[in-house]
């Protein structure tokens, strides 16, 4: 099947089987404030169910963590206590799991414009620094571009060498953060379907998963459209069928995660046998290369350091003279 046909097949499947019930972009001129309450007196936290004076709503609660680049989608349904609970808990695991991706994609850190990924185990031999418009990568080897040349030519693809493992994190906690985002953007009308998911993200329900599927999609060269690609989406199954009732997707520049919402009553008793990747946001003709899709299993509870393969397409090579190494 060609890339074009595959794209059309996915598009036709999701159009016929799903309705888009929420879609919000990370960079909007106007902030999107998601709220369940009509008057301030009735304001409650969606996650713990409490309101004032038991809890406060002073902190700015991002419906999707700002480390993924979200500046615009704000939840008015999250109390300060739950905000801290998620930030110090599951969201920190997702942050550690995605540090390399975010740095390579040039997503600024929370408190500053630059973002850095370091090979901590090996005296920072590999270091990636990104700021708007530029990603700088310092590699331990090769020492010279000449070392890359094969048969007198630079290869089309240059793998990034060095320790590219993520920081230690628990995969199921990182998955929990994705479920939390989905619960935050879920429209009020579907709240009954996500009650058990809310209970699980808040730690009120012990579940051991043997599988927690996370769809992962990568599109090269998304810097061409920058932040315009970044958004979240919630898809609702139109009628009964062998697929999940709710899909949540978060695209952050080049990368995308897609998860089925666990514990929806509408899914009960039915084995979810049909799992499809939503079509890429980027057209099959995307000049920087096609989108690749894979399924990850984030059910693990132990901390892991995940290895990633990264390679770059060579566009142009420029020789520069480095300062001479200091001899001690
Ligand atoms: Zn709360």
What molecules are bound to this protein? zinc ion
- Unreliable runs: none
Number of helix segments? 5
Rg, nearest Å: 21 Å
Could you estimate the helical fraction of the residues in percent?
10-25%
Ends: how far apart? 59 Å
Average per-residue pLDDT, rounded, comes to 88
Report the major sheet. 6 strands, antiparallel
Assembly status? single chain
Structural class by sheet pairing and helices? alpha+beta
Order of helices and strands: HEEEHHEEEEHHEEEEEE
How many strand segments?
Answer: 13
| SS strand fraction | 15-25%
- The best one-word shape is globular
How are the strands of the largest sheet arranged? 1-9-10-11-8-12
Explain this structure to me?
The protein has a domain at 3-93 and 168-270 and 277-302. The radius of gyration is 21 Å and the shape is globular. The strands form four sheets. Strands 1-9-10-11-8-12 form a six-stranded antiparallel sheet. By secondary structure, it is α+β, with helices and mostly antiparallel strands. A hairpin with a 2-residue loop joins strand 10 and strand 11. The chain contains five helices and 13 strands. The mean pLDDT is 88. The protein binds zinc ion (ZN). Residues 45, 47-48, 50, 55, 79, 81-82 line the site of zinc ion.
């Amino acid at each position: 099947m060609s890339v074009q046909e595959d794209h059309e097949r996915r598009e036709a499947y999701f159009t016929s089987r799903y309705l888009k019930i929420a879609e919000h972009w990370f960079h909007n001129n106007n902030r999107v404030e998601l709220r369940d309450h009509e008057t301030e007196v009735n304001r409650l936290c969606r996650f713990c169910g409490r309101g004032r004076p038991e809890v406060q709503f002073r902190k700015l609660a991002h419906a999707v963590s700002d480390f993924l680049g979200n500046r615009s989608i704000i939840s008015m349904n999250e109390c300060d206590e739950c905000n801290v609970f998620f930030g110090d808990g599951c969201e920190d695991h997702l942050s550690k799991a995605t540090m390399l991706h975010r740095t390579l994609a040039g997503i600024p850190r929370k408190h500053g414009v630059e973002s850095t990924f370091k090979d901590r185990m090996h005296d920072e031999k590999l270091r990636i620094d990104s700021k708007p418009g530029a990603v700088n990568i310092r590699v331990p080897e090769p020492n010279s571009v000449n070392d890359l040349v094969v048969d007198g030519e630079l290869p089309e693809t240059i793998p990034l060498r060095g320790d590219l493992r993520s920081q230690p994190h628990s995969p199921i906690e990182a998955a929990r953060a994705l479920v939390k985002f989905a619960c935050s953007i879920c429209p009020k009308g579907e709240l009954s379907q996500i009650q058990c998911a809310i209970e699980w993200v808040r730690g009120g329900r012990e579940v051991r998963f043997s599988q927690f599927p996370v769809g992962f999609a990568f599109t090269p060269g998304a810097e061409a459209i920058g932040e315009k690609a970044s958004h979240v989406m919630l898809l609702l199954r139109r009628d009964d069928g062998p697929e999940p009732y709710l899909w949540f997707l978060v695209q952050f520049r080049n990368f995308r995660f897609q998860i089925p919402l666990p514990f929806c009553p509408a899914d009960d008793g039915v084995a979810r046998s049909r799992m499809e990747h939503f079509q890429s946001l980027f057209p099959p003709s995307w000049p920087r290369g096609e989108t690749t899709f894979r399924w990850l299993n984030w059910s693990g509870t132990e901390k892991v350091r995940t290895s990633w393969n990264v390679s770059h397409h060579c566009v142009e090579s420029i020789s520069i003279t480095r300062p001479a190494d200091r001899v001690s």
